[in-house]
Amino acid sequence: MLGYGLTAWEPAGKAIEEVFAPADVATLRGRLARKDTVAEVLPVTLVMQDARRVPGLVALGPSDAAGEATMVILPGAGRAALAGARAPEPGGSRGEASGASKGEEEGRFFLNAPLAMALTDAAGGIRAANAAFDLLFARSGAAPQARLADLVGAADAAAVAALLDGAQAGRTAPCDVVRGGEGGRSARLYAAPLGGGEIALCAIDTTEQKALEAQFAQSQKLQAVGHLAGGMAHDFNNLLTAIIGYCDLLLVRHRPSDPSFPDIMQIKQNANRAAGLVRQLLAYSRRQTLRPQVIELSDVIADTSELLRRLMGERIALEVEHGRGLWPVKVDLNQFEQVIVNLAVNARDAMPEGGTLRVRTRNVPADEVAAIGARDLPAGDYVLVEVEDTGTGIPPHIMDQIFEPFFTTKEVGKGTGLGLATVYGIVQQTGGTILASSVEGQGTTFRVLLPRHEGGSDAEATPAAEAEPRAADLTGQGTVLLVEDEDAVRAFASRALAGRGYDVLTAASGVEALEVMEGCGKRLDLVVSDVVMPEMDGPTLLKELRARDPRLKVVFISGYAEEAFARNLPPGEDFAFLPKPFSLKQLVAAVGEALKA
What we know:
alpha/beta; Beta-Lactamase; Heat Shock Protein 90; 17 helices; Sig_transdc_resp-reg_receiver; phosphoprotein; HATPase_dom; histidine kinase; EC 2.7.13.3
């Protein structure tokens, strides 16, 4: 820039006296001293490395508290360059043509600049524009006299008029506009008065920036809803743990022949159904416990195909296409199958008259990820799973809501609104992302991107956390400290363990647990502790317990994912984990296994 090579331009930058003419230096320093909060575009004279002076524009950003501002220097974009870019008026004299030719070199700067620039009159009529401006606003060369307001959407016409009026009055705050017509691109316009009723325009394409901002805002919205859903799920898990637990205590005292036995079983079964809904909420909020293993997607989808065909019925054709040499991924097998099933069910419901469901897989190298639209993923290779239907499609006005929990367009009783929310949470927690595109009347495509696994395959999969324990003997002995801030859960768990032969001490917080440990007068064999508690959480309590007894065994109980708090512990810390809600048998089995370990 300005004749300087990369090696000639010092990393520390250059003083403005070395770049701008003396008259402009005073103007710029005055502008910085005012610490303006708006951007401004100023015509300037630039000093080249060889001391030549050329016209230009400088886009000066808002000043910060230190009086510093960002400058964008546009060589050759000043008044002379703009004048050189204009064609001579019809019937002009030879002298005028000669004057225009003198600005030819400077005009080339303007016409070939990569930044969109134009010259307008006070009313917004475009007198001259470079190729970048024409491309940005899809301006045809056959209509050189178009007005600026005609190039933007109707909603932005008033903003353009205010920009031009402000420029004439010396106010140079930019405005954001959207190009008129289909597929309009976004731009930020800067305007600066050139005198004589002329205005210099500089336009920066902000389409990608606006897309990223919208994607980030949607991500923040879903994250906020996820936090809310996760908090609700945590509270419900405590309630369900107590309901299921007390049902188990009642079932211990009632024989199957008792009249009340089926009633108790009905309560427990419905509590377990509610627990399934809570697991979906936790999946959406990315707080469920996953058991990832290395898998080949083609094998898993092949195993799921028969189930999908049964779900689709006879009126919907299933087509499966796999890319060659698919990279392995590391996911929770059961959860990934749920992703495919949920997407398939969603597609089936969108094709009441029949159609085609296509499931496709392929590798996506790192340099192709952005082209798919996944801008928020870490750099790397991914494996793509596409689920496409030929159904009714999704209306554009609800596309931003489809992954929100409890949002559904189905009739009452036909859906919970958690299907796509669960898919979103599982994919996000796995380190991937899911994208949706749809055309009403033609169908919808969901694209799931999962990170490529670079390591070797797992020796064996971890068994599901919810599986009922196989241990036949659920009795035991030893001193167990139970730490739980929910009274109902603490009471049930204490009775369950005491009824199986354990000596149980209880505490309602981490601080109380340390006091009980120091005052009980005997060594503890095991601590069963909640994770989220007031005053002192589970990980902090574990550190304090280890400081007092390094050999002490610990079982954490929580409605959140094990990974959510394990990262707050020292590497290699040994503990067992039991997810809420749990039954009496699961609690007693987890305690027995921890003591035997």
